[in-house]
Design brief:
Elements lengths: L12 E7 L5 H12 L4 E3 L7 E9 L6 H5 L3 E9 L1 E3 L8 E4 L7 H9 L3 E5 L8 E2 L2 E2 H6 L9 E14 L2 E8 L5 H12 L3 E11 L10 H17 L14 E3 L2 H8 L14 E5 L5 E7 L5 E6 L1
Parallel strand pairs: 3-12, 13-14
Antiparallel strand pairs: 1-3, 2-3, 4-11, 4-12, 5-6, 7-10, 8-9, 10-11, 14-15, 15-16
Keywords: Isomerase, tRNA processing
Organism: Sedimenticola thiotaurini
EC number: 5.4.99.25
C-alpha cells in the first residue's frame, strides 16, 4: 500500500504576520495556511487574543527551525493602566480592586522599573497555558480553581518608559521567552503601591525580526486577489532569515557530505562556540550546526 499523498502546496519560507487583535494565534495560522493552500505550516509561540503584532508563520522546511524562534528573545509595546487590578491582569478580566494613583510621577516609575531589569522571578498567572497535573491553568481559572505555582526565572533585557499620562503609562520590553508581560505590569503596579493591569499589548520583535515589513490579513487577501499564489509567495522570507544573527559556515564538498550523514566535521576558522548556519559549496542553506567542545562542527537540524 503506497503512502497517502499530502494535500496542499509545498510552500517554503517565513511570513511575518501582523496578528489581528481578538484572534487566537492558531486561528490566524489556519487562516493563513488556507490562503496559501500550504501543505505544512506552524507558528512560533502563541500571542494572546488580547495582543496583536508579530507572529512569524513558518512554511515547509521552516517549521524545522521554528523552535529556535520560540526560544528567541521577544519585544513588546505595552500600555498599562494604574490604579486597577483585574482577575486576569488585563482588560478582559473583572476589576477586583481600585487604588489612588496620585503621587505616581516619572521619578517614582523610573525607580521602580530599575528593580525589574535583569534577572527576575515571576509566578505564572492563573490565566496562562501552563499545565498543572495535565490541565491548563486558564481552564482551572475559569472554573474558579486557583493552584499554587512555582516561580520562574526570566530575564528582562530592556524595560523603558515611553510615556506617562496617569492613570496610564506605556512601556517597551525586551525579554526572554516565557516572560508574562501581564504579570510584569501587575508586579510593577504593586511596587508602585497602586496596582495595575494591561490594556494594550503588541509584539514588536521575535529574535532577528522587528515590526517593519509585517503583513496583515487584509494585505494577504488583496495580494491573493491581485497577483494570485505567486504574489503571496513573494511575501515570504527565506528559511535562514530566522537565524541571520548566527555566524555562517561555508562547507567544503567533503565536509558537506559528512554533515549530511550526521557526522561532525572540522572546519578551519570556525567560531569557537555556539550555533551556526551551515551552507554547502553552492551557497545553499542546509541547516543548523553547533560547535562542539573539541572545535568540530556538528549538525543539529538539517533541511
Amino acid at each position: 500500500m503506497g503512502r497517502r499523498r499530502q494535500k496542499g502546496r509545498n510552500v517554503q519560507g517565513i511570513l511575518l504576520l501582523d496578528k489581528p487583535l481578538g484572534e487566537t494565534s492558531n486561528s490566524a495560522l489556519q487562516a493563513v495556511k488556507r490562503l496559501y493552500q500550504a501543505r505544512k505550516a506552524g507558528h512560533t509561540g502563541s500571542l494572546d487574543p488580547l495582543a496583536d503584532g508579530l507572529l512569524p508563520i513558518c512554511f515547509g522546511a521552516a517549521t524545522k527551525i521554528s523552535a529556535f524562534l520560540l526560544d528567541a528573545d521577544k519585544r513588546y509595546w505595552v500600555r498599562v493602566r494604574l490604579g486597577e487590578t483585574t482577575t486576569t491582569a488585563d482588560a478582559e478580566g473583572e476589576v477586583i480592586e481600585r487604588r489612588p494613583v496620585e503621587g505616581v510621577g516619572q521619578e517614582e516609575v523610573e525607580t521602580v522599573l530599575q528593580r525589574f531589569r535583569g534577572e527576575i522571578q515571576q509566578i505564572p498567572p492563573m490565566y496562562s497555558a501552563v499545565k498543572h497535573k495535565g490541565e491548563r491553568l486558564y481552564k482551572l481559572a475559569r472554573e474558579g480553581v486557583e493552584v499554587e505555582r512555582e516561580p520562574r526565572t526570566v530575564q528582562i533585557h530592556e524595560l523603558e518608559l515611553l510615556k506617562l499620562e496617569p492613570p496610564e503609562l506605556e512601556l517597551s520590553v525586551r525579554c526572554t521567552k516565557g516572560t508574562y508581560v501581564r504579570t510584569l505590569a501587575e508586579d510593577i503596579g504593586e511596587a508602585l503601591g497602586c496596582g495595575a493591569h494591561v490594556v494594550g499589548l503588541r509584539r514588536t520583535g521575535v529574535g532577528p525580526y522587528g515590526d517593519d515589513g509585517l503583513v496583515t490579513m487584509e494585505q494577504l487577501q488583496s495580494t491573493l486577489e491581485a497577483d494570485g499564489l505567486p504574489g503571496l509567495d513573494r511575501l515570504l522570507l527565506p528559511v535562514e532569515s530566522a537565524l541571520m544573527h548566527w555566524p555562517e559556515i561555508r562547507l567544503s564538498p567533503d565536509s558537506a557530505f559528512y554533515v549530511r550523514q550526521g557526522q561532525p566535521v572540522l572546519v578551519p576558522n570556525a567560531p569557537t562556540e555556539g550555533r551556526v548556519r551551515l551552507y554547502d559549496p553552492d551557497q545553499r542553506f542546509i541547516g543548523v550546526g553547533e560547535i562542539l567542545d573539541d572545535g568540530r562542527v556538528a549538525p543539529r537540524r538539517l533541511m
